[in-house]
Amino acid sequence: MSSQIDHLLNETRHFAPSREFVAQAVAGADLYDRAKVDREGFWAEQARELLHWHKPFTEVLDWSNPPFAQWFADGELNVSYNCLDRHVEAGNGDRVALLWEGEPGDDRRVTYAELTDEVKRLANVLEGLGIGHGDRVAIYMPMIPEAVAAMLAVARVGAIHSVVFGGFSADSLRARIDDAGARLVITADGGWRKGKVSPLKPAVDQALADRGSGPQESVEHVIVVKRGENEVAWVEGRDLWWHDVVPAASADHTAQPFPAENPLFILYTSGTTGKPKGILHTSGGYLTQATFTNRVVHDIHPETDVYWCTADIGWITGHSYVTYGPLANGATQVLYEGTPETPHPGRWWEVIEKYGVSVFYTAPTAIRSFMKLGRQIPQSFDLSSVRVLGSVGEPINPEAWVWYRDVIGEDRAPIVDTWWQTETGAIMISALPGVTVTKPGAAQVAVPGISVDVVDEAGEHVGTGNGGLLVITEPWPSMLRGIWGDPERFVETYWEKFADKGFYFAGDGARLDEDGDVWLMGRVDDVMNVSGHRLSTAEIESSLVAHEATAEAAVVGASDETTGQAVVAFVILKESFLKAHTPDGLAAQLRSWVGEQIGPIARPRDIYIVSELPKTRSGKIMRRLLRDVAEGREVGDTTTLADTAVMSVISAQVK
Ligand code: PRX
């Protein structure tokens, strides 16, 4: 980390927007001025201009009971209507909403009229199954148009979706279904990944099997899309094929208005403890900020742009910048099912060429892997359609930034590095492509209407040229409204640290440069960021100790050239297992164990079998020292260790 920071501090290149770009940009510098004069009035204006309200709101922000905010509370809207019907009613039904590309190369174009029709039918199916206002629906799907339709149909009937990333295991799915008390699961037989069908329905079956009494009894039905054509088991009475029920349902469905604060979705994310948090988002404020930021940060011109965000709908980026933001804006977007390198390493650039993608939004980890493969691969495709590039999910190092701009943007397309979180719901810090002079590696400035700061431990502004903790100083429309079922954890996790100031603590370190621009420096807590995915050290540790061979485990995020950070585990094995197995064999077993328990993304890159862990006198594991070992650095200050000799033992064992 420290070498990366030194590197960032030496970065001085600047890129001003071109005159041509400025002339056509959706957003100008005046947005900042308007927001500065009247922040709440500014958001009210965006909400009114960008969305259709069945019942207009009169109140903007209710912050009388912090940190529980209400935005536009007396207004009523239907999120699905805003993403679909109104575009059709405005005469844009023939506009393509989704340019879907399957991994094997099959494709489908879905217009706004067709997507609206499908969502209306599914909404009727849901209501026929008794799903309505406030019910929870789990969605566990590949990247196919039906996944987007499922989210919108759940929203349409006022229910709450909980999308679970298809790469998560049956156990993770079960935990999320149980925590939310989902009544319905929408899934597919399987989807294409890395050249073969990756099954999904079997994981749903497993997650719903062997259940006793209690909340797990909640699931009544499973709707299954046929995509992978893989064999699936069937539970009569519970399971329904999408192709049996959806086409047979009526395509008439009137979207009912719901209050702005109606819950829209729960999305689980990793925190500093073993148990994932169900982040709760509501409707009006969330949709306002997702739509606004997609429009101004990505500079979306719905009539002409072809937008592509490569995120899976299982993550917040897929919620805000695949489903809600772009569809509310009436944009045309690419939806790609598979992995970037299948069947060949130029697959993404082929997709850009095929559809003429003009706005492209992806993660630094992907950029770095393409960089490694060499520029000749993207350069053998026609990327001349690209005019805006976005980055999200982790800090982007200046080398990757400059490569992205040079090679993918052909030294013409501006880059927006967007900082935000599952909790913030939408982009918070980012350049505006027609306004900001960009700097490689910096997210730079809060978007209009958002107030952030970098402060010290006491909550005091650090001043330009200094580092500290990133905070959000004013409530924002798409802020999380809580943690599902755990209001105390919500207050504790985000608001307690700077309670006297009323700041939201993001968990990220940041630095202000001489111009006052923000540079993100990575997490300051026990949350790791691997390939732009958030993982908790505690969650992986509890998975490791759940294995019969493990006595103790400590997990750290070590910097990795491609994935940003990588999971590195230090494990103490039980004597009895060490006698009967080789350490290498056990390490391999543990790797796949974590993959099965949580999901392949959580599998440690390295597992070191050690005989001790560094602990303070009060028994707290000093992960900082383990990180030094994992990153091959000299081990730092060990004076607070109960046994100062332990680090040399560990270092020797790791070698
Ligand atoms: O550490 C920050 C990092 O990702 C975390 C949020 O992760 P998640 O909720 O999974 O959402 C990812 C997609 C929005 C943040 O706390 N992060 C996200 N974007 C950036 C970033 N770090 C630096 N620069 C970014 N642009």
TrEMBL record:
Which Pfam families does the annotation name?
A: ACAS_N, AMP-binding, AMP-binding_C
Domain of life (superkingdom)? Bacteria
**Parts of the chain that traverse the membrane:** none
| One GO term describing the cellular component | cytosol
Show where the AMP-binding enzyme C-terminal domain sits: 539-620
MF terms (GO), sorted A to Z: acetate-CoA ligase activity; AMP binding; ATP binding; metal ion binding
Which GO terms are recorded in the biological process aspect for this UniProt protein?
A: acetyl-CoA biosynthetic process from acetate
Question: What is the residue range of the signal peptide feature?
Answer: none
Q: Which residues bind Mg(2+)?
A: 545, 547
Coiled-coil parts of chain: none
Where the record annotates domain Acetyl-coenzyme A synthetase N-terminal, the positions are 30-83
Q: How is it modified after translation?
A: Acetylated. Deacetylation by the SIR2-homolog deacetylase activates the enzyme.
In this chain, where does the modification N6-acetyllysine occur? Answer: 620
Which EC class heads this enzyme's classification?
ligase
Q: Which coenzyme or cofactor does it need? A: Mg(2+)
Q: Which UniProt keywords apply?
A: Acetylation, ATP-binding, Ligase, Magnesium, Metal-binding, Nucleotide-binding
Q: Where is the AMP-dependent synthetase/ligase domain?
A: 90-484
Please describe what this protein does.
Catalyzes the conversion of acetate into acetyl-CoA (AcCoA), an essential intermediate at the junction of anabolic and catabolic pathways. AcsA undergoes a two-step reaction. In the first half reaction, AcsA combines acetate with ATP to form acetyl-adenylate (AcAMP) intermediate. In the second half reaction, it can then transfer the acetyl group from AcAMP to the sulfhydryl group of CoA, forming the product AcCoA.
Family to which the UniProt record says this protein belongs: Belongs to the ATP-dependent AMP-binding enzyme family.
Q: What is this protein called?
A: Acetyl-coenzyme A synthetase
